[in-house]
Design brief:
UDP-galactose 4-epimerase, domain 1; 2 domains; 13 helices
Length: 347
Amino acid sequence: MVIAVTGAAGMLGSQVVARLTGDGAEVVGIDLREPAAAAPGISYRHLVGDVRDPAVLRIAFGRVDAVVHCAAALPSYPAAQIRSIVVDGSRAVLDAARAAGVPRLVYISSTAVYGLPRQVPTPEDHPYAPVDTYSTAKADAERLALGYRDADLVLPVLRPKTFLGPGRMGLFSMLFQWAQEGRNFPVLGDGRVRIQMLHVADLVDAIVTVLRAPAAVANDTYNIGAAQFGTLRDDFQAVLDAAGHGRRVVSLPARPTRAALGLLERAGLSPVYGRLLHKLMDDSYVDIGRARRRLDFTPRHSNQDAVLEAFRWWQAHRTGGAAPTSSGRTSRDPWRQGVLAAAKFFF
């Protein structure tokens, strides 16, 4: 098979490229950036370009058997960029795939389309309930994608939980840095909420599964998340234990801390965005029963497998004994902590 992967230089896209080329596929990657690592081999061709550019997509999709659309924005982006990349980018990819006669397109959505659901575990038939710019863009883009699903285009939609693994940074880099420095780490309230995550390798397995599945099975929408997960406190404590300093997760009063972080976000002094603050206050996990039944898919990794592997990767790739700083433009980058960097001295 010849498969095109958008966002191929990103954390997810690069893992998809590595898996597909390893399985013998010929892969065409599209990204604004060059790959972070050397090209996987002669079966890989990388195009530097924007998924919103029809000319780039015409070249990329010219003779492919399938597309995996991984390119995305992060919640930390300005609102206009989120909308443009998520919605306009998806429309451009879908139009180009249809024009090229691509028979299958795997659309990577997000459980953010559910907003802050009160039904937990959350099933795929839960209505869209976006609560901010990012979740609204993801919901609108998914609605758009489903409109392209027809007799000529098989279009699996995967809704992953937050995925972790080697190379994933973002806000998790704050936990990793504080743990490595021998500091306690705070949680809102008692931290006993159950927050489901996902190992990136399991998401890649799901992508490969729907690429290979019969059309009648693949042409559906699937939640993808860890099957084994505990509380947020347990997951954070596992990282502190792995750092080896004997530090603990400490509770902060939920309401005043959330209010303070909300003010800091609005002032541009904290990367912790509003939907995350609310999500960390309640159980957050989805029903993966449909993927088990229809795809015979069971995730191989627990939450703690995912977060600990990401932490070990972070430890191995620190520069000069300290974590690199970044603007957080991709999920590979550690986000700037803003005023929270100073707060660590109290822990």
